[in-house]
């Protein structure tokens, strides 16, 4: 089951949700809201640089932000075609709508989420 922290009144988590397996991610995506999944690895420098951005997005946007460790979830990463880290996959309305590879600037990610957030 996904490890979740305190939630805002709109139901979005204040901090990234740790995903452990496909069923965890499926459960988050099935909620129908906007979900930003950060596929990362502990050994990845750009992933570490992106971490504070991902945390701010979790705190300040309506999106649920999920963290997926590709080393612990290799099958899940393969399912979504993750070949490099960091890879960010955006879901809206229960469907995958965007995928970006590499560390992205916060304004770009905020705009991407805003395109799909209600």
Automatic annotation (TrEMBL):
Region (Disordered): 1-20
Residue stretches of biased makeup (Polar residues): 1-10
Entry keywords, A to Z: Disulfide bond, Electron transport, Redox-active center, Transport
Residues in Thioredoxin domain copies: 1-118
CDD domains on file: TRX_family
PROSITE patterns: THIOREDOXIN_1, THIOREDOXIN_2
Gene3D superfamilies attached to this UniProt entry: Glutaredoxin (3.40.30.10)
InterPro entries: Thioredoxin, Thioredoxin-like_sf, Thioredoxin_CS, Thioredoxin_domain
Cellular component GO terms, alphabetical: cytoplasm
One Gene Ontology term of the molecular function aspect: protein-disulfide reductase activity
PANTHER family: GEO12009P1
Name of this protein: Thioredoxin
Organism: Halosimplex rubrum
């Amino acid at each position: 089951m996904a490890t979740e922290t305190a939630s805002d009144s709109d139901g979005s988590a204040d901090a990234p949700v740790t995903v452990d397996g496909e069923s965890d991610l499926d459960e988050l995506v099935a909620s129908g809201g906007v979900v930003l999944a950060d596929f990362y690895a502990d050994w990845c420098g750009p992933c570490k640089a992106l971490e504070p951005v991902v945390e701010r997005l979790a705190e300040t946007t309506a999106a649920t932000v999920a963290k997926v460790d590709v080393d612990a979830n290799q099958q899940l990463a393969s399912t979504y075609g993750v070949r490099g880290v960091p890879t960010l996959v955006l879901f809206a309305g229960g469907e995958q709508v965007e995928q970006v590879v590499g560390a992205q600037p916060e304004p770009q990610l905020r705009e991407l989420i805003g395109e799909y957030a209600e």
